Amino acid sequence: MSGASVPRRVLSFDSNPPYTLPLRFFFSAPLFVLLACALLLWQGDAALASRWSPYTLALTHLLVLGCISMTMLGALMQMLPVVAGISLPHVLRIGPLVHAGLCGGTLLLAAAFCWQQPWLYIAAGLSLLATLLLFIGACTVGLWQQPDSGAAEVVAAIRQSLAALLITLALGALLAASLVWPGSIGLPLPLLTDLHAMWGLLGWVGLLVMGIAWQVVPMFMVTEPYPPRARSRVSTTLFLLLCAVSMSSTLQGAGKDVHLLALGLLVLGYGGFASLTLYLLARRKRPSADTTTLYWRTAMGALLLAGILAVLRQLASHDKLSVLPVAPTELAIGALLLTGVALCTINGMLYKIVPFLTWYHLQETRQQGASVPNVNQIIAPQQGRRQYYLHCSAVVLLVAACYAPALSRPAAGLMALASLALCRNLLTAVTLYRRVRRTALIGQATEVI
């Protein structure tokens, strides 16, 4: 059966969570980007001096935990009931707890990196462990249910991404323990750090983006569905390759070749996913690209570029490409994956999810005679496009700043402007929601009188 013959699934809104539940996560995300920008403006060159710099680590975790993971947790609470018919247990109680714990834990961890206080590491570790384990536990209970027909591939990728999050959390706990009690782990810290970053960015973030793509790219961007073989095999194969890279990372001699082969296949796998997505987006049925489509094209292009840089970095580390500096290239790969892939994907999806949720939750006001605008009118397209250009300019400057640190403050300023523009655009949708609801309630009260 070809990808074109796969029927589009009907979504289920029977267990749709309240409007405010995912919104608290979505609105917190750009605020943490602003904090990361403030840190970069404060420290300047020092924040991009090395991937081992405390300020670089604080910057990274503000983005990964405070923005990327924040949005993804909120999106999962929204998507699992709608896409797969899976309800998380006690989500109305768990949601606010997870949000508060993730906000507090991220701030404590960033402070711990900046000020190097052991008690901050302990407080941050306990907060993040409790929060993320609570969320993973709730998802495990929910995912034990049988998903709706046709959602198996999406659910499989989500399960694998949550397993990757658990591995990332375990590695992060080991690293935090080594910082609080030096020498207590007995494992090479650079290797643990590399594995922690790999499972976090390629496992937790990458596999979840992939699972979301199976559903939202055809639905929101009006493309043909992904081929069935890609949906059923790619995420599982990549998860197994992540395991192979991890297990072979300490091998020497001939085992080193196995490690390099697994790394190469991992790069090819993610590159294949990016290429397939770009191919589907190029053949989409709508002639003009909206903000979400532009963001996804940029994200997939950034993923391909990060893969190319990873190969060049590997060659440079073996003195086969001495013109490429290794340390700045490592930073550039991280910047591309964080701001070029993850943040572009998140920004693009927010321009679809937030207007759609606003429109959906306003449908009941039609009975009171309220006028509800079309989904595409809730956030003005030109506002989204302007914010897209700001963000892309910031990504380009940030990647360039990895090689020329003097550009770090201009990059931070542009990224801050893009985040403020995103906040304003999302606030437009919420303001519209409140205004229409208020108008409907006034009209209903007038009819009663």
From TrEMBL:
Keywords: Membrane, Transmembrane, Transmembrane helix. The chain crosses the membrane at residues 21-42, 62-84, 91-113, 119-141, 162-181, 201-222, 234-254, 260-282, 294-312, 332-351, 388-406, 412-433. It comes from the Bacteria. This is Permease. It comes from Duganella qianjiadongensis.
